[in-house]
Amino acid sequence: MTVAAFLAELRGRDIEVRADGDHLRCNAPAGVLTRELHDQIRQRKGDIVEFLRAAEALARQERAIVPLQARGEHDPIFAVGGHNGDVFCYRALAQHVGQDQPFFGLQPPGLDGQSEPLARVEDLAAYFAAQIRAFRPEGPCVIAGFCAGGTIAFELARQLLLQGAAISFVALFASPYPSWYCFLPQLRHRLRRQLERVSKHARALAALSYKERHVYLSKVLRQRERGRDADRLAARDPELRLRARLEDVTLVAVRRYTPAHFEGRLSLFLPSKAWLRPGDALLGRRWRPLARDIEEHCGPDGCDGDRMLLEPYVRESAELFRRYRDKNTQRVTA
Question: Could you list the residue range(s) of the whole structural domain that residue 124 is in?
């Protein structure tokens, strides 16, 4: 009889068996756990403990590890999404890097309505590290992060490396240094974005006739109203409320995090060369002193962080990634 069938038989008799380290604990109604069953459990203890541990690891994997591309011969990528926890931001990138690249998203607690978001970057990283070690105990892997998720990915790679895991490299996509999410940098960013919008509308209006300006302004106002309607609907949607709470908690965690040194390869995939401007708080330059080996790769002019993983820019992001991967890892044939 298989271990699964044996445990099912025990459950049918109201006998619960659980692993406690290397020990087994049994709960059963009085008189149900006969001497014969007790001996069978003792004889099969090792197999039962191994089975229960594997089942527990699988349950944890299902909560956190989302396969975007399960097969392939390259070192697998485990990728942290942005501050909203959406791992499907990588869907297009996973497609463009090729079918030979295993690609898994890491979904944080707080989206299922049962667990609470984790309020420290270190705790999120530890949670993901346990998931990865259970899912892939051996072999090198790539850790990736997008936007605010880059900070979590960085700490995740540090923890895995300290635990003895093999990290091929860390890939951060449009990931500002954590302090960029603090109040003053965010205020400057919002003001700059507002000035850019005002300038864009002013240039558009200057090129239009009086009648065309009226049509243009009406269109802008309708778009704003649709945006407000979407916000009101989101406030009533339970799933979107969970995501909004996760966003708030994650951003607070990132603001409070201070990165330490990483003894590995760090690759910064920046949307464009604009991220290298002196004095720009988005900059990857603040990551530079924190890694033993660091490279920067810039996307095309006009690309920004919001569109880096979307068409058409994602094609170039994937190509930059492939070049770096092929230079720094070896392809392993199963």
Answer: 65-181+251-328
